[in-house]
Amino acid sequence: MSHSLENYKESIVLSYQYAFRLLLHLKNVIAASKQIPAEDELMKEVYRDSIVKKYEILEDQLWKLLSKIFKASGLELHSPRACYRQAFKEGWIEHIDIWNDMLSSRNATAHVYNEEDYEQIKQKIVDKYVQAIEALLQKIKEEVIDRENIWN
Predict the structure, then answer these.
(1) Does a structural domain hold residue 14?
(2) Backbone phi and psi for residue 100, each to the nearest 5 degrees, phi listed first
(3) Which InterPro entries match (predicted)?
(4) How many folded domains does the chain comprise?
(5) Is 106 buried (19+), middle (13-18) or exposed (0-12) by CB count in 10 A?
(6) CB of 111 closer than 8 Å to CB of 102
């Protein structure tokens, strides 16, 4: 197992670092969006769209990171749902229902043409998804990135 992990180490670490940077960017945009005056509808819309887009990119990066980690230990998982389910089994994800909802929202963003639905998805990102992603990245850092013994 450790031999296999060694082959993926650099790719996993780089993917983790990229996901972490994406999360920080998303959190910064969310913080900035809260400073916009209520009457500035255009800027609120620009920030909302930016939050949703950054979330889409982060969620995509996240499941691909999980896929690499699991592949390094011999598991071939090729879908976000399979990766989240396995992360749940590993104890890295606490509430699988949030992740199922995240997947539904992520899939919906490509097909939402209604401002209210888009606004609801943005609100879920802000209220629930960011914390769930941050918790998962913290678990990956503890269980995979910082565990030097698994790389040797």
Answers:
(1) yes
(2) -65, -40
(3) HepT
(4) 1
(5) buried
(6) no
Enter the pTM of the model.
Answer: 0.90
Q: Is the pLDDT score of 144 beyond 70?
A: yes
Amino acid at 35: Q
Q: Are 4 and 72 in contact (CB under 8 A)?
A: yes
Answer whether residue 6 is part of any domain. Answer: yes
Distance CA 14, CA 68 (A): 11
Question: What value does the mean pLDDT take over residues 89-115?
Answer: 90
Side-chain half-sphere CA neighbours of 11 within 13 A: 15
State the residue range of the domain holding 5: 1-145
For the segment 52-73, what is each residue's pLDDT rounded down to a tens digit?
999 999 999 999 999 999 999 8
Q: Which residue has the tokens 């509808």?
A: 41
Q: How far apart are CA 66 and CA 58, in angstroms?
A: 12
Return mean pLDDT, the chain. 91
Tokens of 130: 């960011």
CATH of the domain at 113: 1.20.120.330
Which tens digits make up the pLDDT trace of 104-139?
998 888 787 788 888 999 999 999 999 999 999 999
